[in-house]
Amino acid sequence: MRLAGAELVESREILPGQWLQTYRAPDIIAGARAGQFVHVRAGDYSGLVLRRPFSINTMDLATGTLTIHFRVIGRGTAWFTFLRPGDRIEMLGPLGRPFEVDPRSRHLLLIAGGLGMAGVRSLTDEAIRGGRQVTLLFGAATARDVYPSSLLPDEVEYVVATDDGSMGHHGFVTELVPEYEGWADQAFACGPLPMLRALARLAATRRDRLGVATLGRKRGGGRPAVAGSAAARRKAFLQVSMEQNMGCAVGACLGCVVKAAAGPPVRVCREGPVFAAEELDWAGGW
Amino acid sequence: MKARRRVVTASGAAVPAKRRPTVRRIKPAIVPVTRRDGPTGGQLTGHAAGATSVRATGPAEGPSPAAAPIHEVDLGVDLGRGLVLRNPVLVASGTFGYGIEYGDVVDVQRLGAICCKGTTLRARSGNPTPRVTETPGGMLNSIGLQNPGVDAVVEKYASTWAGWQVPVIVNVAGESIADYVEVVRRLEGVPGIAGIELNISCPNVGKGGLQFAIDAEAAGAVTAAVRRATDLPLLVKLSPNVADVRPIARAIEDAGADALTAINTLSGIAVGPTRERPLLGNVFGGLSGPAIKPVALKVVYEVAQTVDIPIVGIGGVTELADVLDFLAVGAVAVQVGTAIFADPTLPVRLIDELGAECRRRGLDSHRALIGTALPKRATATSARGAEYRP
Ligand SMILES: Cc1cc2nc3c(=O)[nH]c(=O)nc-3n(C[C@H](O)[C@H](O)[C@H](O)COP(=O)(O)O)c2cc1C
Ligand code: FES
């Protein structure tokens, strides 16, 4: 975790109300991994007292740049769109825990709903660099909101679902999962809570339905991984990247928690944002 | 009725206590202070009155013309009962965790003190989410005192704190007087714990959920009970959600608190984006940030004219001007809370900026900046006459 300046290199609206910005921030991405995020300070401090968390969408160590992908939902996110190339802002990062891919996993299934694309996007690059096959299932309300395939690596198999059927599968992205879950060694998801909840339910029943073993059972020598550890995530079939309103983003304020399957609520900024699905309580309610 | 505290002069005559918060020096002067006050420059000046450097390092040496001509400023603050801070910038409870979360980003050893997250007798899992949201010029939070309980806090953090030079003040919360007393008992004598800050903005189960902080009798009773249970320096944190804070402050002082901190958050709500329900999972939250600074200044202004014990101002500190404002209305120190989220390095920078400001004004310490905006009085302060009149 470092506090460092970042210079805007490029900024464009890739979809209505959705922006992709490239920042030069070599100090932030040094050592950063897929799934981590940055906490960014918006300018007008008299009105905006909180930073904004953004997933590291992609990063390029060669140029020292990272991209963030966001939807304009308020004054804070709007403020970022007014920046011009050359403008400097300040970032805190990299923050949170990354996705953990088991070394034996060849086939990765990524599932993103809407802006959840920003949460899993960096993993496509990391996985392809590692010689893995990636299928990315993407769900949006309508064709207008579908993430452009031109912004994805060619190696990715990209499957789209829209709620209104205007592009790809007509229905929820989760309905595509059964087709791929037998092929997949591991799955990684980010998106709206109902989507993640449906996926968690699928993952929990996967063994019974497909008769497959959970990853890592043999290799762990029967010793269960410590809850919340990198090993626990690496052994999980489904890892999810969670979202929550944040204050500090470093674990100090307990503003960003989600309910855990056992024990006290866990911090999305510190124990997350990536969790093994079975680490969380999906029942809803408090 | 409160017996007015009296001080005794050298001649032995008792006089009414000066209405000036205590700011005592932290150590005997060990380093002579040099000041550029003549063409000779770097001349050793006596300064018997305030020559301690807060950042004096190295052995005391004789005067040297080559010594840096910058005069050191004493930013030390005495909050009573031996709780002496090197400078008047603290970090506020709930915004700085247990002091370790910001890692290398913040040089915590430079802080005046750290107030840790609210700590209760048993572990609490806190309120439903969402727990935080931004509001105009501020934020609302309803964490609900999620914490692992006092024993776990001591076990996990106290040994780390004991190795620090920055004092750690444990913020204590409870639902009954017995709860508060038991938490404090378990903190008593633990190395690494420099003081207690009572968060009395909690529902008092014994009084039908009425907050301790809004009831002078309950606030006094909990303070007195904790006072009996500990010799640790005892700070009590005032809530602004009251009609008149002065009787409450007076009751807390009379019950033996060493200092007051003010203010905790203001109660508020935000509405969810679909307008189907309030946004926060707990419905109600506490407002903090620049939006509450005027309220905090008012509370400090009133309380400074009501009690003799030192007051630490809290609420919306985001720049040096805010620190100076709080000092002017009678605070001896400030806590920085919400602003840390946007700028974790702010508290340390404020220390440097306050020192520089004192130097610029030729002051040996920030003491001369305290209480300058309070009404001038020849006699001991009356609680009357400072009300807001539209
Ligand atoms: C996220 C958050 C958590 C807080 N938790 C506590 C707490 O546990 N105990 C307490 O006495 N005050 C708590 N506070 C109140 C702060 O310590 C402080 O009194 C208040 O935020 C006003 O200062 P500020 O405007 O500088 O933030 C909390 C504030 C925030 C924003
Ligand atoms: S945002 Fe403060 S603990 Fe996560």
> What CATH architecture label of the largest domain in chain A applies?
3-Layer(aba) Sandwich
User: Taking strands numbered 1, 2, ... along the chain, how are they ordered across the largest sheet of chain B?
Assistant: 7-8-11-12-15-16-19-20
> How many whole angstroms does the radius of gyration of chain A measure?
18 Å
Inertia-based shape of chain A: globular
- Spell out the CATH superfamily of the largest domain in chain A: Nucleotide-binding domain of ferredoxin-NADP reductase (FNR) module
Kindly report the name of the CATH homologous superfamily of chain B. Aldolase class I
Give start-end ranges of low-pLDDT stretches of chain B.
1-68, 381-390
Please state the average pLDDT score of chain B. 84
Task: State the helix count of chain A.
Answer: 7
Globular, elongated, flat, extended or rod-shaped: what is the shape of chain B? globular
Give the second-level CATH assignment, the architecture of chain B. Alpha-Beta Barrel
**The CATH C-level class name of the largest domain in chain A:** Alpha Beta
Strand percentage of chain B lies at: 15-25%
Helix percentage of chain A: 10-25%
Question: Helical proportion of chain B?
Answer: 10-25%
SS-derived structural category of chain A? alpha/beta
Task: State the separation between the terminal residues of chain A, measured CA to CA.
Answer: 31 Å
What is the CA-based Rg of chain B, rounded?
21 Å
